[in-house]
Design goal:
Elements lengths: L4 E5 L3 H14 L4 E5 L2 H5 L8 E4 L2 E2 L2 E2 L1 H7 L5 E6 L4 H10 L3 E4 L4 H9 L10 H10 L14 H11 L4 H8 L3 H15 L4 H10 L8
Helix pairs in contact: 1-5, 7-9, 7-10, 8-9
Amino acid sequence: MSFDRALVVDDLESSRDWLSRALEQAFPGIEIACAASLAEAQTHVESAPPLALIDLGLPDGSGIRLIEKLQPLGTLCIVATVFDDDAHLFPALHAGAQGYVLKDQATDTLAGMLTGIAAGQPPLSPSIARRLLRHFQPIAADPGEPSLTGRETDVLRLIAKGHTVVEVAGLLGLSRHTAAGYLKDVYRKLSVNSRAEATLVATRRGLVGTDG
């Protein structure tokens, strides 16, 4: 697979420069267009570049919206972000992102990850790859504590972080009814009746920090 054009979407100029340098190193001669917002990126949707590096936290919305538009057009979308939590990772992958890299590495490292695309290697930061592996492993509960499925654990984590059921549904790509059903199952399994009690359980299981 070869790439002659790419789109970089990030509101920070320094990040756009970093991503552009990595692209040029990985694919010499590549034509790069940059956008600092969703609105600006929309102007490039019709031309559908073969490759796009997209930040999630844009000033006028989430980069996931752009992924949802570009991916069906054949654009290989890679997230480049500071967010390393499940609440951002899994919705991005669900939307069609084929890579997820964090802004904590050298240009050479990112360029190497991008070069691997041609060999069919998804660009994933090491910590993201480990998170994905953990997500699909059985959840080990403490002896005597009820076990939750991976999806129920996701719901518990987000609820404990203060998200509403509607927000949980959106972040996990579920309907509101399905998210509410998962939450009901979580409450039943944990024998809790409130968000405060659920948060205490989530904290004890290490799903959220003790500082909130």
